[in-house]
Amino acid sequence: MALFEPGIGYVDIAAGQLKGATNRYVKTFRDLEGLYEDAEAFAAVVAARGDEVAYEVTDYKPSANAGDIIIGVTRMEPGKVGREYHMTRGHIHARPNRPEMYYGESGLGVMLLESPAGDIRTVEIGPKAICYVPPFWIHRSVNVGSEPLVMTFAYPADSGQDYDVIAKAGGMKSRIVDDGRGGWKAIDNTAYLTRPQALVDSIMARLD
Ligand SMILES: O=P(O)(O)OC[C@H]1O[C@H](O)[C@H](O)[C@@H](O)[C@@H]1O
Ligand SMILES: [Fe+2]
């Protein structure tokens, strides 16, 4: 096995970027069609700022080899679509037993997690908080603050991302919305379809 060289990156909190990253991944508001409950409010956001960056990921990816690691920074714009706070698309890892960690740099976020069977967890992430995303949990970041949300993350390099698991269920089971008092609350996604038990079993059985 050939050796890789050590690497270094710098977290630029103000820019919300990893300086020295090897990859950049950007989603504009226009890219997020179908995510939000309020289609009219979404259309208004797209009309006003469709080409602006809703969230950005800069990461250091030495390889996609088993046993290697991807380290990066994500930056999310603050704001809401209707009553719903800005969020990432969300995914389960394509190799679902791979975990992830997130470290809060600035702003206030919620990690919304859903098990394949539809159990929901929410974890608030402020500066210096470390969030453990366990294997097999679908996860999505939500910016519930009034400032950009910046988080550092790391996960196994061969994890991959599967977006279909959310799309086929009509979204995640919960939505993170304004609670009317400047905070957030989780409410039911009325379009959610519970996964068939056979699908849940097949996800949970994957250990490769
Ligand atoms: O992949 P999305 O759900 O669009 O989220 C964007 C990004 O979020 C996190 O920061 C992950 O670690 C990235 O690998 C992911 O690509
Ligand atoms: Fe992930």
TrEMBL record:
Its EC number is 5.3.1.9. The keyword RNA-binding does not apply. It is found in: Cytoplasm. It catalyses: alpha-D-glucose 6-phosphate = beta-D-fructose 6-phosphate. GO terms for cellular component: cytoplasm. SUPFAM superfamilies: RmlC-like cupins (SSF51182). Pathway: Carbohydrate degradation; glycolysis; D-glyceraldehyde 3-phosphate and glycerone phosphate from D-glucose: step 2/4. One of its GO terms (molecular function) is iron ion binding. One of its GO terms (biological process) is gluconeogenesis. Its main location: cytoplasm. Keywords: Cytoplasm, Gluconeogenesis, Glycolysis, Iron, Isomerase, Metal-binding. It comes from the Bacteria. CDD domains: cupin_PGI. The keyword Transcription regulation does not apply. Fe cation binds at H91, H93, E100, H139. It is an enzyme of class 5 (isomerase). Residues 26-190 form the Glucose-6-phosphate isomerase prokaryote domain. Homodimer. Belongs to the archaeal-type GPI family. This is Glucose-6-phosphate isomerase. It comes from Rhizobium sophorae. The lineage of its organism: Bacteria, Pseudomonadati, Pseudomonadota, Alphaproteobacteria, Hyphomicrobiales.
